[in-house]
Write a structure and sequence with these properties.
Strand content: 15-25%
Number of domains: 2
Distance between the termini: 54 Å
Number of helices: 9
Strand order of the largest sheet: 5-9-4-1-2-3-10
Shape: elongated
């Protein structure tokens, strides 16, 4: 059995895509897990995106707590005899996967960028050394646990005609001694770089905060309206909020078009945007590292290139 779980619906859709591939290769069924209140509509959605079955663990726990969720998912793994477990690699998912691995004595790979079968063994790849290398890790025992970040796999095309079994079971576990005293939503602006299809990013090549309007103008004429930035702009200079920060310690993005203006291309930034569809780099330094990752490169002063590029796009798009 292959099971997938995440408290993020979109991420679950992406996990189902890879999960269905692995299940087919292993000759197993694919089960999506829902923890909490029974939600038949969500269960049917998971089936339409590739799940063969959906296991709904009904519980009175009204919010995520790693200790309780680990026990619940551990019970599901035992009941379904799951050998391969894919978990969404967000904040909750990483903690859940690590605890689960310790509880059921399983191997665990965090933040995998690829998962596949090699010699009939589950194999996972992940970025190491700040993006300078890829570690290839193979499981020699079962169960196997892998966490996968968002945007790594594309979801399957929705098939409303797919049929699957929905299993509901009440699972109550012993409550842990820890308590959640307060849950506060993170304050964010109206920027969501992770879902953007077009991003224009700025870097340390900009001399003043007001000059970022050049990037904003290009983003608007491209109908993208999304501005990103490298670490120095958000973390050091504070010219933009961290909502815009793209990189290893910021947001990881996968737009159709990514334009990097005045960004040198350090590996920390590349790790956040390397999966973009088309990458365009603008930099006056012809030896800048960003050009090694770009599909198209413009060597020139961004203060001259950006206005001309913006005007050219305006003319082309009418």
């Amino acid at each position: 059995m292959v099971i997938v779980y995440s408290d993020d619906k979109k991420l679950t859709f992406e996990l189902l895509s890879k999960g269905s591939e692995l299940a087919k290769g292993l000759g197993k069924k694919l089960t999506a897990v829902i923890i909490g209140k029974a939600d038949d509509n969500l269960a049917k959605e998971y089936i339409s995106f590739g799940a063969d079955n959906v296991f709904i663990a009904e519980t009175s726990i009204d919010s995520f707590k790693a200790e309780e969720y680990t026990d619940i998912l551990g019970n599901i793994v035992k009941e379904t005899s799951a050998e391969t477990i894919l978990i969404g690699s967000n904040k909750n998912g990483k903690e859940l996967a690590s605890r689960l691995a310790g509880k059921i004595n399983a191997g665990c790979v965090i933040d995998s960028t690829n998962v596949y079968l090699k010699d009939k063994k589950l194999t996972a790849e992940r970025v190491v050394y700040s993006g300078n290398a890829i570690a290839v890790e193979q499981f020699n025992s079962k169960p196997c646990i892998v966490t996968v970040p968002s945007k790594v796999f594309d979801p399957l095309k929705k098939d409303g005609g797919r049929k699957g079994e929905i299993v509901k079971k009440k699972i109550e576990v012993e409550k842990s001694a820890s308590k959640i005293l307060k849950v506060q939503d993170m304050k964010t602006g109206d920027v969501n770089v992770e879902d953007a299809e077009i991003i224009v990013s700025c870097g340390r090549g900009f001399k003043n905060k007001d000059d970022i309007k050049l990037v904003d103008e290009l983003a608007k004429v491209l109908k993208g309206k999304t501005v990103g930035c490298s670490r120095p702009i958000a973390a050091d200079l504070k010219w933009l909020s961290e909502d815009h920060w793209i990189g290893l310690s910021g947001h990881k993005v996968k737009p159709k078009l990514y334009i990097a203006a005045g960004i040198s291309g350090q590996i920390q930034h590349i790790a956040g945007m390397r999966d973009s569809g088309i990458i365009v780099a603008i930099n006056k330094d012809s030896e800048a590292l960003i050009f090694k990752s770009a599909d198209y490169g413009i060597v020139g002063d961004l203060y001259e290139v950006l206005p001309k590029l913006t005007n050219a796009v305006k003319e082309k798009m009418g």
